[in-house]
Amino acid sequence: MKVKKYVGSTMQDTIFKVKTDLGPDAIILNTRKFKKGLFGLFGKTNVEIIAAIEEDKIKEEKETREEIKSLKNMIENMSAQWQSDNFARTLPEELRRLYQHLNNQGVEKALSRKIIEGLIDENYDRVNPLPFLEEKLGDFIGEPAPINCDSGTRVVTFIGPTGIGKTTTIAKLAANFTLDEGKKVGLITADTYRIAAIQQLKIYSDIINIPLHIAYNRDDLGKIIREDLKGYDLILIDTAGNSWNDKIQIGRMKELLSHDYIDEIHLIISMNMKSHIIDEVINSFSTLNPDKIILSKLDESDSYGDLLNIKEKYNYPYSYITTGQDVPDDIQIADRASLIKYILGGLYE
Length: 349
Ligand SMILES: Nc1nc2c(ncn2[C@@H]2O[C@H](COP(=O)(O)OP(=O)(O)OP(=O)(O)O)[C@@H](O)[C@H]2O)c(=O)[nH]1
Ligand SMILES: [Mg+2]
Description:
Layout: E1 2-8, H1 11-22, E2 27-35, E3 45-53, H2 55-90, H3 93-104, H4 109-121, H5 130-141, E4 154-159, H6 166-180, E5 185-189, H7 195-208, E6 212-214, H8 218-228, E7 234-238, H9 247-256, E8 264-270, H10 275-285, E9 292-296, H11 306-314, E10 318-322, E11 331-333, H12 336-344
Parallel strand pairs: 4-7, 4-8, 5-6, 5-7, 8-9, 9-10
Antiparallel strand pairs: 1-3, 2-3, 10-11
Helix pairs in contact: 3-4, 4-5, 5-12, 6-7
The structure holds guanosine-5'-triphosphate and magnesium ion.
């Protein structure tokens, strides 16, 4: 049997708390009124209830709630599928093919429908609608937002869940900006939890022959940017991978990054993550106010609809895409033509 204590300002409130927490089968063992305050003299009267429930009942309640949730999801999915099938039936053959392709790529059904309805509104070419769709998706995805360090020092931070590709992406960018564009690049790592993480970036900095500094806290970070890397064109900051549901870690990161010196923050999202995880990641990292999104590991996915879903829901500009493990080659600016090719891939055959 599980026994718990509940306190509230009225009996009704407190019983409500008991029922919400333990469910309707809870048994009330004791109730009492007491005053809070100095020796109970001047305080307000509060109610305390000791309630209990059989452990099995708690388990049952939880299972029932989960069953209801999964049934609800199932009904919602069936209803979305039914509406989508109905919509598909109203479409001429050539548009139905495009609509189904978008759905197969994992574009959310409401968004696929909006895109196709947009084509109909704009009097698409019935014989060859594909170029119309390309144009529409191009407008939707928008201009890419790569790093521009042509005027003054640009300080850029990379954030994202563990193993998403932050350090590798930084190495690719550092190499490209140094070797191809002749920029003076400096690296900072704030990932000081694991020695291996520092070593990983150190190897790249040695190969590219650029400095790597280690920032253990917010003050270090400020000092390195202000003094050690003064006059550099581009400063790239690596951070420790955060579990997206660890609010304390994300809070620490917020404090570390609360610097006016930081010009832009890129959140990295891997294209091989499940859609609902992508949502959780973006929602939890949004407290760090990212400016742009990098899509990583496009080579490890076979459906790219999420890049449209992310755009529709959060509207961050895309800066880069990464397409493999090779440093420095497997990165490119997130230009619309490339992204469209990923999404519409199978339609060109
Ligand atoms: N296939 C593929 N692998 C990649 C890509 N980008 C990075 N990786 C690999 O993913 C793994 C993790 O990359 P890291 O750069 O260490 O990831 P991280 O985000 O810095 O990881 P933590 O620092 O542990 O949070 C490495 O094996 C990389 O080579 C990519 O675009 N495609
Ligand atoms: Mg790393």
